[in-house]
TrEMBL record:
Record's protein name: Protein tilB
Keywords: Leucine-rich repeat, Repeat
Organism: Nestor notabilis
Lineage of the species this protein comes from: Eukaryota, Metazoa, Chordata, Craniata, Vertebrata
Cross-referenced PANTHER family: GENE 29133-RELATED, LEUCINE RICH REPEAT PROTEIN
Entry-linked SUPFAM superfamilies: L domain-like
InterPro entries, alphabetized: LRR_dom_sf (IPR032675)
Amino acid sequence: LFFKLPSDCFKYVSWCDIEEHGVQGNLLHCPRVREGPSEEELFFRGEEHTLKKIKQATDTEKWQKKLQENWEDCAELNLSFQDLGDLYQVEKFKRILQRLIRVEKLWLVDNSLTDLSAIRLPRCRELNVNKNHFTSFKQLPRIPQIQHLSLAENNIMTLSGISDFRHTPLESLILKRNPCEFQERYRQLVFSSLPNLKMLDGIPKLPEDCSPPNIRFFFKMCAIL
């Protein structure tokens, strides 16, 4: 297209940059929080016509924007599919996560995340980080109140570090489609590390899951996933 569409000026604009509205962050369930491409990137894409003229923000306007982004008040938030293509977008994303001090349910699906170990989510009870690039439990955020954790489709190789969740109220864990799922006596090892766990990969704790992991025994029962 060689002509400017009416909506082009909003293509890379976050909701808090749109004028004359009072919508705050805790009112949005699936906000887009990543910043748009830089001016240089837009030029190389041939999309310089979409660039919004940015004026120098006053201190009052900066404060009003901060009030709109009241992430501290969010109890339930979906920040999935943010398309974090640049480092500066990832850094802004992490700064928002650091402000989620009251969030209880958080979805971060498919964001190409690799390390959130510096993030603390003190009230989070349910966390979904499916389809990211985590390779270890050590790279997860600190979640002392976690009850339901979903890590499907990451790249977690071993169960090393899983015992860090031993003293949390974790009841349900999903590790489907991670390499560690193919480890010998996988279910026994997980349940022995997490005594409070009630469900693994959608399957409740079975009697044979309670057997000591160092005992080799073949059961006639199989679980069909």
